[in-house]
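Below: protein 1.
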Amino acid sequence: MKLLLSSLLLLCVLVGQSTTVKVVNWNLEWFGSNTAGPLDKAQQNSNVLAICKELNADLYAFCEVVDTNRFKDLVHHLGSKYNYAWSSFCSGAENISDKHWANGQKLAFVYNKNIFKHVTVRGMMVHEHTAYYNFANGRLPFLLSALVTINKKNVPISFILIHGKAGNSYTSYYRRFYATDELVDTLSLYFSNQLVCLLGDFNDDLLHTISYGVKTNESSYLPLEKWSQDHHDYWHFLTEQLSARGQKSTTHYNSVIDNQVVSSPLFQYYVPNSIQIDTVVGQWVSDETLEKTSDHYPVVALYNW
């Protein structure tokens, strides 16, 4: 009887591994920077590695990667099943040859190459001057497209990593607002009826804005919300429910600014109520808090087919 139960448990684990994709977005707070973020970079690296091993995700979408050599070493220690890609642009730098690129906040993906096939990455709206300004002077959305293969079924998905303009001022609010407006145009033109996941550090709550310098309580991502409403609730704002419960995605502020939003074609594969903010990650490292790792918590969601 014990042998039978053990076999059934093993089968359940194997089935779970073969049909579910775990997606994590996380702001790593100036990862590896010599001028900002946690002071002990070796400790930060060690903690991020330990937490990622516990999360055991199939896709990590990271914001604020600075030291690419340290990041490459991190992925190496995560295991041979992972590959990575980082943006060739960041705030203040349009390409790798720019002198500001090395010390800038870059976007990066780490993906399970056993599941993610035919991976391509590129920056979005890279030739649009207003988008460059509104997305924090060059911190444009970073696109990863792939065939996600589970149980011999290939599903084409586009993951768009966003790091919105930070700040709660009037100017920051409207830079996010107009950046979202331009992104909506791009999505409606090039990604209509596709499986799309928008994720990352939006630097605003989806239910209400964190900005106090504007005469509204509505999120700066309102253009996306309105477009969705006009198109039969096309976008599903997964992390809104976390905000409604009073949760937070950073260690200092009582708001959910790290988000996941999915298109209707992808929503059919979302595991209901699986979205969560992993505030327990402090239990997986030697620190009592995340202060030596990041001021943001990972956001996790599951997708299943």
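Below: protein 2.
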Amino acid sequence: MTKITAIIPTLNEEIHIEAAIKSVHFADEIIVIDSYSSDKTVVLAEKHNVKIIKRKFDDFSSQKNFAIDQAKHPWIYILDADERVTPEVEEEILKAVIDPKDYVGFYVRRSFYFAGKNINYGGCQSDKVVRLFLKKECRYEGVVHETIKTNEQLGFFKNKIEHYSYKNYDHYISKMNHYGELRGKEYFNNGKKVNLYHFLIKPPARFVIHYVIRFGFLDGFQGFIFAKAQAYGVYVRYIKLWLYNRNVK
């Protein structure tokens, strides 16, 4: 009951994949589930002792749940390719699987890096995700911002993992476009409509939330750009919804 399968979902993550794999070297099994990357992600992953599964991407929850079903071991550690497990968190993971107490999974907080700078505010101060959990007790739900669902208790690790989500502004915008596409499609499937409110009010409101209310201004210029990018992501999702409603993809 102490063995761990680490799962790394990938799509064109050649700049991250090897460091990500090394980051979970403590796992008894490592699965890379790849959405048919067009770069060197798979080639680089094959240099390491990992199991590679190729699966067409439909949504984040389905992709991760599929990989979880292939895991040999009871404990799952999910690692996004742009995350790194620190030695301190590794120690907490290994202790948790030996003595989880009454917990079936654990939240871990993340140190967020944007364009080479650690972003401490703008909402990042409350960033936490479930990364370690028991396979039989937990499943993912949600199309874009997938979350772990369980009827049992979840604990917290004290230390943080590192999150290098965006190497530069262009990379960030490309991800915002991708997430916007997925969110717009989700809204469309749920029968949502769009109006001027979604374009004129919601994006500026999102900027204010991240830059002012969540103290993004304390991160300097990077905090300003981060908040602007978050607002852009909101704008994109409603553009995509508007296009879907007009049968234009």
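The mean pLDDT is 93.
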